[in-house]
């Protein structure tokens, strides 16, 4: 009867606590009624498969069917809401402070600085809360539950019932996922809101941004879209914390899209701030055209290194699915 207990557990774990016991008793009674006397294990499997996927059955038992975020994902949602909202708030606040430090001559008073930082922190918190909630709503509606992959079209079988959680080498490190969330938010925030803080100050020269902000604006939609997709995949990793084919495919697809966007940006010579190249020219014995050519080679080398890392990350996800 262990398999019946596992099935009932799978159904009731995503229900409100105050109805779990009643549903458990009712479901157990229904299963017993469907079984013949002296039922074998094969009989039990057949009955459970007739009842279908526990996640879908739980929806039928749930008196409140329209959760914004259902019980199955709620704990994960709260955890990630705190984490991502905090990171986004700190990132936005840090970027606002860093912008002021790099541009001390902008005449902004300390009072205005504090207002800007507080405004940026609140904006970051609201942005983080909005996007993580939106991602969870999408995951909720797509049928994601902890330990279950979405988009699975095959018929549910009892072999999919949750058991002792031992993901082995398929397990995705929670620490690495948090680091990826942190990196994704910071890079997206900087590129979208403050690309001017990516720059240098050489030999006492004024701080000069490396990127041409006006040209970067032509890529903003792609950057924002990919940032949100990456964040969605990372949220998925926290809910479904081991590698699966759909997750590995999504991860690889996102890596490919990022590499393509980056190659377009690297190929675009107008992306580099001309003042930055002029400073490099003044620090070397080379002409401006030579400096520009050398800087382009450096960017292509950087892109090649990034692509190699993206390929390794994508392949690692696929290989870990098979372990």
Describe this structure in words.
- With 323 residues, the protein is mainly alpha-helical.
- It has twelve helices and two strands.
- The chain has a two-stranded antiparallel ribbon.
- A hairpin with a 7-residue loop joins strand 1 and strand 2 (208-209).
- Helix 1 packs across helix 4.
- The model has no long low-confidence stretch (mean pLDDT 81).
Kindly list the characteristics that best describe this protein:
323 residues, two-stranded antiparallel ribbon, mainly alpha, elongated
Q: Name the shape in a single word.
A: elongated
End-to-end gap: 30 Å
Give the total of beta strands.
2
Mean pLDDT: 81
Radius of gyration over alpha carbons?
A: 26 Å
Percentage beta strand: under 5%
Q: Helix segment count? A: 12
Within the largest sheet, what's the order of strands?
Answer: 1-2
Low-confidence spans: pLDDT under 50, at least 5 residues? Answer: none
Largest sheet: 2 strands, antiparallel
Helix share, percent: 55-70%
The SS-based structural class is mainly alpha
What is the succession of H and E elements?
HHHHHHHEEHHHHH
């Amino acid at each position: 009867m262990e398999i019946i207990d596992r099935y009932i557990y799978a159904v009731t774990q995503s229900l409100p606590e105050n109805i779990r016991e009643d549903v458990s008793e009712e479901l157990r009674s229904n299963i017993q009624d469907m079984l013949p006397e002296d039922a074998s294990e094969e009989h039990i499997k057949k009955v459970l498969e007739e009842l279908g996927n526990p996640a879908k059955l739980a929806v039928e038992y749930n008196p409140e069917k329209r959760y914004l975020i259902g019980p199955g994902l709620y704990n994960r949602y709260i955890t990630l809401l705190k984490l991502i909202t905090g990171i986004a708030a700190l990132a936005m606040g840090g970027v606002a402070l860093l912008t002021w430090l790099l541009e001390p001559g902008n005449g902004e008073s300390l009072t205005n600085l504090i207002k800007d930082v507080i405004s940026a922190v609140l904006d970051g918190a609201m942005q983080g809360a909005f996007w993580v909630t939106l991602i969870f709503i999408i995951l909720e509606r797509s049928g994601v539950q902890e330990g279950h992959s979405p988009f699975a079209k095959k018929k549910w079988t009892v072999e999919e019932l949750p058991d002792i959680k031992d993901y082995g080498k398929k397990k995705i490190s929670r620490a690495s996922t948090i680091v990826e969330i942190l990196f994704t938010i910071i890079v997206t925030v900087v590129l979208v809101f403050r690309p001017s803080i990516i720059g240098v100050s050489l030999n006492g020269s004024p701080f000069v941004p490396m990127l041409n902000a006006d040209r970067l604006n032509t890529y903003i939609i792609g950057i924002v879209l990919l940032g949100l997709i990456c964040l969605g995949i990372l949220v998925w990793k926290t809910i479904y914390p081991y590698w699966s084919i759909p997750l590995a495919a999504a991860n690889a697809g996102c890596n490919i899209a990022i590499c393509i966007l980056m190659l377009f940006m690297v190929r675009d010579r107008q992306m580099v701030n001309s003042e930055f190249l002029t400073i490099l020219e003044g620090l070397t014995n080379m002409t401006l055209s030579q400096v520009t050519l050398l800087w382009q080679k450096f960017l292509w080398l950087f892109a090649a290194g990034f692509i190699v890392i993206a390929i390794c990350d994508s392949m690692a996800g696929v290989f870990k699915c098979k372990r």
